[in-house]
Amino acid sequence: MATKVKEPVAGAAATSNHPNPLIGNDKLKQLYSTMLKCRLLEERARILKKQARFKGNYYAAVGQEAAAVGAGVDLRPEDAVAPSHRDFILNFIKGTPLTAMFSQLYGRSTSPDKGRSAPAHGGYAPLNIITPSSTIAAQLNIGTGIAMANQMKKNDNVVVAFSGEGSTSLGFWHEALNFAGVRNLPIVYVCQNNLWAESVSVKLQTKVDDISLKAIGYGFPGITVDGNDVVAMYRVAQEAIARARTGGGPTLIEAKTYRWYGHSEIDPAKYRSAEEVEEWKAKDPIAAMERYLTGKDLFSDAWKKEISEEFQKELDAAIDVAEKAPPPEPIDCLDYLYSFDIRNRELDRKNYSPKF
After folding, report:
1. What is the CATH number of the domain that holds 6?
2. Dihedrals φ, ψ of 169, to 5°?
């Protein structure tokens, strides 16, 4: 079943007889402040990239904060997240320390992976955040495998796996969702449909208007949500996560949103019209939430300034730690190959011969 959720932010607050209770004021303010911090974090990372302060590329999700925050803000530490390369902010949303995030971005020895991954591949094992894969949609297979492990262990942990609309054309995406449907796994798939798979329009990716319709073929619910409406995104994600925790199986959430900038920081995005970009910037999820909170007497410019100034100090401190940290130790390839050979010999002695 595919259900569209297109109400504006104000309409996302349910009436008293709704199966879900109203979202409390503290949670509404948390959703906003988290989105604002994600925006500040991404814009700072973009500046650092342009200043050549770290090597490699960066894939900003500016404009897509509501989809990420709504789906990830209330996950437990035991829950797993399978992010794409554009989901750097999911690390922050789930609780990864900023020092670890920027150390990874800079490729320092103090990063969670000891500086071994590219900037767009930030994961954090203590919070079960999978390191993104350069192979598009491959993170869904890993996340689906974790969901199967959770099911076998009979716990109530869930996995939330993120992808873009372009990945829905690939076999990895189909295999993951099909397997999850057959096995009724505790996983939620979030497709952040920002209309452009790198420089390819969604119109060349799929014939259907709503990607959520694809869930029909896998035997579980598909829901299309206004991905710039953090309240709607939060409500739908919480229902899907609760369903997964209690044995109800997977859900596909399509968040219709938009990335403000190019596919990466080296992409000028000339394939899009200026009118299209400005139209979507007018739908800024942060500005929309400010209007909603203002209507509930929960927002002020002074509060926003306080959040911004305090968080900028946290960013400054984390960046300072990353820039002062040493680079990773170089790998001796001969030593690595020798240790790999020794490991294989030990496995052979145990009558187990893996195929590499």
Report:
1. 3.40.50.970
2. -90, -5
Segment 130-143, tens digit of pLDDT: 998 778 889 999 99
- pTM of the predicted protein model: 0.88
Q: Residue 335 pLDDT more than 80? A: no
d(CA 48, CA 41): 11
Question: Is position 224 within any domain?
Answer: yes
Length of the chain: 356
The verdict on residue 18 lying in a domain is yes
- The H or E element that residue 200 is part of is strand 200-201
How far is residue 317's CA from residue 264's CA, in Å, rounded to a whole number? 25
The Cα–Cα gap between 34 and 32 comes to 5
* DSSP codes joined into one string, 279-298: HHHTT-HHHHHHHHHHHTT-
Neighbours of 283 (CB within 10 A): 16
Number of domains making up the chain: 1
Range of the domain at 250: 2-349
Specify which residues 225 forms β-bridges with.
5, 255
Share of the chain above pLDDT 70, in %: 87
Confidence of residue 159 (pLDDT cuts 50, 70, 90): very high
Half-sphere exposure in the Cβ direction for 302 (13 Å, CA): 1
Q: How far, CA to CA in Å, does 78 sit from each of 94, 118, 125, 143? A: 11, 25, 10, 13
Q: Is 355 inside a domain boundary?
A: no
pLDDT at 103 over 60: yes
Of the candidates 302, 212, 255, 305, the one whose C-alpha atom is nearest the C-alpha of residue 65 is 255
Q: Quick one: which of 224, 147, 219 has its CA closest to 190?
A: 224
- All residues at 6 or more sequence positions from 234 whose CB lies less than 8 Å from its CB, including other chains: 23, 27, 31, 69, 70, 71, 73, 74
**Residue 291 pLDDT > 90, yes or no?**
yes
Two tokens at 194? 């920002």
Confidence of residue 328 (pLDDT cuts 50, 70, 90): confident
HSE-up (13 A, CA, CB side) for residue 78: 9
Here the tokens at position 326 are 């040493």
Residue 354 within any structural domain of the chain: no
